[in-house]
Amino acid sequence: VRVEDKLFQNRYLVDAGRCHIKVRPHTTPTPALKALLTACPARCYELNATGQVEIAADGCVECGTCRIIGEPSGDIEWNYPRGGYGVLFKFG
Ligand code: SF4
Questions:
Q1: What is the C-alpha separation between 18 and 20, in angstroms, rounded?
Q2: DSSP for residue 75
Q3: Which ipTM score applies to this complex?
Q4: What are phi and psi of 70, to 5 degrees?
Q5: Is residue 92 over pLDDT 60?
C-alpha cells in the first residue's frame, strides 16, 4: 500500500487563513528547509518559482517531523491547529 493511498483516507478541516505552520521568510533555503522538501510524509513543503520553500499545510497529518527539523533553528514556527481543525484520522 502506498503512503499516498493511506493519506487519502484522512479527512481535514482547514482553518482558512490561519495556517498552523509558518516558514520564516528567506531568500535561499537553509539546509533544514531543504530537508523539509523530502522529510514531510504528506509533501506539504515545496519550492516556489523563485526558489523559496513554501508550505501548504492543508494535508498535514501533524506528525511533527518538520517541527523537529525546522523549529530549533527558527526556520519554521509550528503550532497545533485550533481545536476542531486539522487532520481527522478515519482509522485511529
Ligand atoms: Fe508534514 Fe508532518 Fe510537518 Fe505536517 S507535521 S507539515 S505532515 S512533516
A1: 6
A2: S
A3: 0.99
A4: -105, -20
A5: no
Q: Are 25 and 69 in contact (CB under 8 A)?
A: no
Identify the CATH number of the domain defined by range 3-14+21-82: 3.30.70.20
- Which tens digits make up the pLDDT trace of 19-36? 999 999 999 999 999 999
Domain ranges of the chain: 3-14+21-82
Dump strand ranges (E) for the chain: 11-13, 21-23, 45-47, 53-55, 76-78, 86-88
- Cell 503512503 locates to 3
* 75-to-26, 51, 57 alpha-carbon distances in Å: 9, 15, 16
Centre of ligand 1 to C-alpha 92, Å, is 18
CB atoms within 10 A of CB 37: 14
Measured CA to CA, the distance from residue 25 to residue 60 in angstroms comes to 20
Residues near ligand 1 (Cβ within 6 A):
21, 40-42, 44, 57, 60-66
